[in-house]
Write a structure and sequence with these properties.
single chain, 84 residues, mainly alpha, elongated, cell membrane, Cell division protein CrgA, CrgA
Amino acid sequence: MPKSRLRKKADYTPPPSTATAVKISSGRSWVAPLMLVFFLVGLVWIVTYYVTSGDWPIGSWGNWNILAGFGFIAAGFGVSTQWK
Protein backbone atom coordinates (compact mmCIF):
# COMPACT_ATOMS: atom_id res chain seq x y z
CA MET A 1 0.00 0.00 0.00
CA PRO A 2 1.45 3.40 -0.92
CA LYS A 3 2.38 5.74 1.89
CA SER A 4 0.50 9.02 2.05
CA ARG A 5 2.31 12.26 1.55
CA LEU A 6 3.36 14.03 4.76
CA ARG A 7 2.22 17.63 5.06
CA LYS A 8 4.33 20.03 7.02
CA LYS A 9 2.42 22.95 8.44
CA ALA A 10 4.20 26.10 9.41
CA ASP A 11 4.30 26.71 13.16
CA TYR A 12 1.96 29.42 14.37
CA THR A 13 3.69 32.59 15.41
CA PRO A 14 1.50 35.24 17.01
CA PRO A 15 1.67 38.72 15.56
CA PRO A 16 3.93 41.12 17.41
CA SER A 17 2.18 42.97 20.19
CA THR A 18 2.39 46.74 20.19
CA ALA A 19 0.46 47.27 23.44
CA THR A 20 2.23 47.04 26.77
CA ALA A 21 0.91 44.87 29.55
CA VAL A 22 -1.13 46.74 32.13
CA LYS A 23 -1.30 45.46 35.68
CA ILE A 24 -4.86 45.60 36.90
CA SER A 25 -5.22 46.09 40.61
CA SER A 26 -8.49 44.85 42.03
CA GLY A 27 -8.33 47.25 44.97
CA ARG A 28 -9.51 44.57 47.36
CA SER A 29 -6.40 44.01 49.42
CA TRP A 30 -8.48 44.26 52.59
CA VAL A 31 -10.48 41.10 51.91
CA ALA A 32 -7.97 38.39 52.80
CA PRO A 33 -6.80 39.96 56.10
CA LEU A 34 -10.39 40.66 57.21
CA MET A 35 -11.45 37.14 56.29
CA LEU A 36 -8.61 35.65 58.35
CA VAL A 37 -9.42 37.94 61.29
CA PHE A 38 -13.05 36.79 61.31
CA PHE A 39 -11.96 33.13 61.12
CA LEU A 40 -9.48 33.53 63.96
CA VAL A 41 -11.82 35.55 66.19
CA GLY A 42 -14.51 32.90 65.76
CA LEU A 43 -12.07 30.09 66.51
CA VAL A 44 -10.63 31.86 69.56
CA TRP A 45 -14.17 32.66 70.79
CA ILE A 46 -15.23 29.00 70.66
CA VAL A 47 -11.98 27.66 72.12
CA THR A 48 -12.09 30.23 74.94
CA TYR A 49 -15.66 29.22 75.73
CA TYR A 50 -14.74 25.55 75.99
CA VAL A 51 -11.46 26.04 77.87
CA THR A 52 -13.06 28.29 80.53
CA SER A 53 -16.08 25.97 80.91
CA GLY A 54 -18.50 28.68 79.80
CA ASP A 55 -17.25 31.54 82.02
CA TRP A 56 -15.74 33.51 79.15
CA PRO A 57 -16.18 35.36 76.71
CA ILE A 58 -19.70 36.26 77.91
CA GLY A 59 -20.85 34.04 80.76
CA SER A 60 -24.50 35.05 80.71
CA TRP A 61 -24.91 33.93 77.10
CA GLY A 62 -24.31 30.29 77.94
CA ASN A 63 -24.26 28.07 74.87
CA TRP A 64 -25.08 31.05 72.64
CA ASN A 65 -21.34 31.76 72.76
CA ILE A 66 -20.88 28.85 70.34
CA LEU A 67 -23.33 30.47 67.95
CA ALA A 68 -21.46 33.78 68.28
CA GLY A 69 -18.18 32.06 67.40
CA PHE A 70 -19.72 30.36 64.40
CA GLY A 71 -21.26 33.71 63.46
CA PHE A 72 -17.76 35.19 63.18
CA ILE A 73 -16.65 32.23 61.09
CA ALA A 74 -19.71 32.61 58.83
CA ALA A 75 -18.89 36.31 58.47
CA GLY A 76 -15.40 35.27 57.34
CA PHE A 77 -16.94 33.07 54.65
CA GLY A 78 -19.21 35.96 53.66
CA VAL A 79 -16.21 38.27 53.26
CA SER A 80 -14.38 35.60 51.26
CA THR A 81 -16.95 35.92 48.47
CA GLN A 82 -15.48 39.36 47.72
CA TRP A 83 -11.99 37.93 47.13
CA LYS A 84 -10.76 38.04 43.53
